[in-house]
Amino acid sequence: MLIIVAPGQGSQTPGFLLPWMEDPQFAERLHWLSAVAGLDLAHYGTVADAETIRDTAIAQPLIVASGLVSALSLFPHPSDAFGRIGAVAGHSVGELTAAAGARAISAEQAMVLVRERGKSMAHAAAATPTGMTAVLGGDAEEVKAALTQHGLIAANVNAEGQIVAAGTMEQLSAFAAAPPAKARLMPLSVAGAFHTEHMAEAVGVMGKLALAVSTHDPRTAVISNRDGKVVHDGRDVVRRIVTQVANPVRWDLCLATMRDLGVTGILEMPPAGTLTNIAKRALPGVETFALKTPDQLDAAREFVEKHGDPSPIDISPTWRMLVAPTKGTFVRSAGDEGESLAASSSIGLVRSTRDETSVTAPYGGTIVEWLVEDGDLVSPGQPLVRLHPEGVLA
């Protein structure tokens, strides 16, 4: 199974778009998204220095646009891609890249959201000097205790032995002066304590904008940063992206879901490298491909052919499919085929060793076909029931 991933802030480096801009079609598409973002992304991706592109209001639109435009270079016919990609996931702001790539929202909607996300997060970060520090290694319990002692938040849990602490600069300085045993600290080049309560202002801004976003159910499985669950309701994809701004990124749970899905290959979109490096350590045996320059496109397509497998989500205008959000045992609560369900009705839950996750029919509909039985073991993204949109109860 092939999974496409999109990196988050901090992955950008000066000049990373230089080779891509030699392709006129890439340049034209980037120019269009630049107009939506209100930024000269070609300038920032080619000649701007590291300090300039560290600015949250610049870095975030630059990263999302780069991922979206390079995806079109990799998949000139996007409809073909959906038959090869098993799932998508994005780290932090990369979730917007993933959402647009899966067609839950449009590229233009993603650029408006990331433009305002970057601005509002930069404004929130300016209110109080805050930052983030990577914590590599150390005993997990000792690291957790040290974070609590200094009032810090584990804003990113990327993998075992790799978290990112966030808080005020004073809290981070005190943490650095007394680090956990055998842990290596590495301050990150970001402008604030992202994915903490310090970003509450940005959640409000994003939430208002999201009310006007028209969504579609994703064309392939989307793995959420919140809890690693597979999401197949476009509205829920956007809701989670909004609230994630002030909540920790659980990339470790995303990786666990990728393992449950049976991933064999992970391809990272530009600016690539960070997520594939994490995957090499966390998912041994899974092949990775970091797409950094356009001269890799042919090799990337070969990688897609090798690992690509049709998504289990078969979308047709006539049907709606509800899928399992996680691995576990399906406990059915809805009725038999032919029964009509009101919007937001529960059809059952998926029970795992970790928790229970309810599965609802967000749009309602008539049950056409059950694809699993009560008590069946299910995997993330596995279709559970097929609904017909007509016959929804008022």
Automatic annotation (TrEMBL):
One of its GO terms (molecular function) is [acyl-carrier-protein] S-malonyltransferase activity. It comes from Nocardioides marmoriginsengisoli. GO terms for biological process: fatty acid biosynthetic process. It comes from the Bacteria. One of its GO terms (cellular component) is cytosol. The lineage of its organism: Bacteria, Bacillati, Actinomycetota, Actinomycetes, Propionibacteriales. This is [acyl-carrier-protein] S-malonyltransferase. Keywords: Acyltransferase, Transferase. PANTHER family: MALONYL-COA-ACYL CARRIER PROTEIN TRANSACYLASE, MITOCHONDRIAL (PTHR42681:SF1). SMART domains: PKS_AT. Its EC number is 2.3.1.39. It catalyses: holo-[ACP] + malonyl-CoA = malonyl-[ACP] + CoA. Residues 5-321 form the Malonyl-CoA:ACP transacylase (MAT) domain. It holds the Pfam family Acyl_transf_1.
